[in-house]
Amino acid sequence: MNDWVDGDSAAEDPFAGGKALPRRPARLEFPAWRWDGRALAERPELVGEECATALVFNGVNYAVMMMTPADFEDFGLGFALAEAVVGRQQDVLALEVQDVSLGVEVHVTIPEARMSVLEQRQRSMAGGTSCGLCGVIGIERALRPLPTSTRPLPVKASAIARALDELPRMQKLNAGTGALHAAGYALPSGKVLMVREDVGRHNALDKLIGAAAKAGLSPAEGFVVLTSRCSTEMVQKTATAGFSLLAAVSGPTALAIRLAEEAGLTMVGFARRQGFNVYTCPDRVLAG
Predict the structure, then answer these.
(1) How many domains in the chain?
(2) Are 133 and 175 part of one and the same domain?
(3) Model-level pTM?
(4) Which residues are catalytic, by number?
């Protein structure tokens, strides 16, 4: 089942410029394999889609965000207002959404006086805690090719369950705050050797990859466990670092599943001690 989300019609949207808006599914059905503590059983899962969306002001790429493919016009206008690109709605002179091969471009026309301020800000733009692609200004760079796993790591289902059980107990910072994400390096046995925490899930994973490298831990000999959802950026970072299995406590996006499949990365989602879903390479998750 695919859920399609259409934008407002041109007649209803003063920014639409008379052109049809992109028609992309916001949710997709994917095959998955559910581990219930005894065996893997195939069943379909509904997964939220993710779309690389470039914000283009006066013809200049500003940033790429990964977002649910819906309400693009609201996003473009809201971003311009919330980030003080413009001071009022009337300063957005035109807004057009274009469906391109790798994603969507939201073209926003603003007064030239505002554009000079935007160009100055772009040179010193800092990423927020939830944005894994801040500073990336082209869709092609956002969806870069990933290396293919050459040393797949088979892991027992019980080991994944053990790692997810150990991870929260090793979150020292989150214990007193309840506000931090964690990324952990686990051995094939499920023993978690190290954990790094951060308010940003991407930051936590970056910290873990750096710490593992400093400690001489091989990505080919362990797997990553996350307290967050599994989006495109998390797959990109994990695969690029050389890991072949990623387990997250929340669900993946459809684009993340496709990228993981292409990279030969085993993706596990909704991971809990009592069960989890396997979205790619289910043959690497062993019973027991």
Answers:
(1) 2
(2) no
(3) 0.77
(4) 131
